[in-house]
Amino acid sequence: MTEIDNDKLLKDFFAENKREIADNGFSRRVMHHLPDRSNRLARLWTVFVMTVGATLFVTLGGLEAVWETLKDVLIGQGYTPDDFSKVPEETMKLAKVKSGYEQSKSQYELTKRETEHATLVAPFDGIVANLFSKPYNLANTSEAFCTVIDTRGMETDFTVLENELAFIKTGDKVMITPYAGGGSYEGSVSEINPLVDANGMVKVKAAVNGQGKLFSGMNVRVSVKRSLGEQLVIPKTAVVLRSGKQVVFTLKEGKAMWNYVHTGLENATEYVVSDKSQGGVEDGLLEGDTVIVTGNLNLAHETEVTISGE
User: Fold this and answer.
1) Rounded Cα distance, 107 and 83, in Å
2) What proportion of the chain, given as a percentage, has pLDDT over 90?
3) How far apart are CA 76 and CA 66, in angstroms?
4) For residue 159, which of 80, 201, 225, 267 is within the disulfide window of CB 3.0 to 4.6 Å?
């Protein structure tokens, strides 16, 4: 009897003895519940297996185990551990495929990379600001987690007039003084923006070592230090206005003498004034003049004055 005859006899037997059993909705109820539960179980099982697999791979040294398998394959090809460096490239490639070395190495590198990216590391030392997240809260990937501020290498922005631009250059020393107090800090001009705005101002940046005592966003006073050679310099309090012109009173034979001047560069406390000893300069002062710096608001020309303390 052939195999085909056996199949025919079985088919005829089951056809003659077939029985109909009432389902009563049993199949429908089973099929209604089974797919959803099995899919959830499959997803949970997949996540569980992947997690355990990755953990075991790292913990048990999966890459080292595969390397041992690779050595066994090479030894089976007639090579000894001392001769692995002499294995032909094609043979080594085939051995790595058979042992699963390349796949395991890729998995190891992926696990290592994901582990490294699980920890946030700042590229520099500093202090943390704007940290509002709490432990165990779900992270919002669309927002910054926190701000790291390097208080040792801070920058300050300030502006200068365009006619003062010729007197400032990159590298010039600056003195930073916070309005909140706490002392002054030295720095240097790091950047000059090559653009004059609509108000005739130029933006300048200076790098300053805040020594960990300055805060981001603080308001500061910036003084630029620059050597300009020999100039006539007087206190700002010595200059008064008369009919819209700058006037400085000097003391001569006990009387206040009226002198028109032209001021130039200035700092927080002093002016550079015109020097009459220079050719073509009519209004100004001479080196050695005694300048009245207080009580000069209501003085008139040739008013007798007394020096306080004498």
Assistant:
1) 27
2) 15
3) 15
4) 201
